[in-house]
Amino acid sequence: MNAWTSYRLQDFIPFTAEVYFRLLERMGETFWPLHLLTLGLGAAALTLALRHRPRLACLLPAPLWAFVAVAFFFQRYAALNWAGGYVGNAFIAQAVLLVVMALTGWGMDKAPRSTSPPVILGTAIALFGLIVMPLIAPLSGDSWYQAEVFGLHADPTAVTTLGLLLIMLRGFALWIAAIIPTLWLVVSGLTLQVLGSTGATVLFAILAIVLIGLVWKSIEFKR
């Protein structure tokens, strides 16, 4: 027991901030201009979700979760951290779950109210993941290739998807679909905290807003 208590969070992050952010930059360099396609798919998914087409909106992000699993976690992140393969499998599972939900219609909120607070929160979160997150790096003076983009990098993919889920789903299905993206943001937030990045605060703030939206949507569903 004493051996475990001697470990610190830093002991589970086997890379430096420079190495990690260089990994993000390599993703941008390697796959440009795929960014334009993934952002377009994200914008289309958000539009469909707001236009009461939740099944198609749920389907569009699925291949992007699988792509991030393979290109980011299996092929790159796993070389830095042994847990990368496990996270990649979780992202594959999320992709499968989104496809199953799209095909079966399980948990779909077919008539979301545009004035509903959870829908407003979901829209704001999705827009943050699609538009604001890619701008953080360049506005901070870093390379444009280091910009984190939905469908290429894990954080904006999880953030945008959580926003979409708040719009598209309801009840138990909403909570199930939110588990993997939420857990990843917790892991990523803690990682960024250890690396001394202010991005940790951003992710924890998003998680708090997502939790409020999940609880609020659940209360509305029970009425």
Produce a short descriptive summary.
The protein has helices at residues 2-5, 17-31, 34-50, 54-59, 62-74, 84-104, 117-139, 154-168, 171-194, 199-222.
Overall geometry comes to: globular
Span from first to last CA?
Answer: 47 Å
Helix content: over 70%
**How much strand?**
under 5%
The number of distinct structural domains comes to 1
- Averaged pLDDT, please? 87
Question: C-alpha Rg, in Å?
Answer: 17 Å
Number of helices: 10
Note poorly predicted spans: 1-7
Structure description:
With 223 residues, this protein is an all-alpha fold. The chain has one domain (33-222). 73% of the residues lie in helices and 0% in strands. The chain has helices spanning 2-5, 17-31, 34-50, 54-59, 62-74, 84-104, 117-139, 154-168, 171-194, 199-222. The longest helix is centred in the last third of the chain and has 24 residues, at 171-194. The protein is globular and about 50 Å long. The model is unreliable at 1-7 (pLDDT under 50).
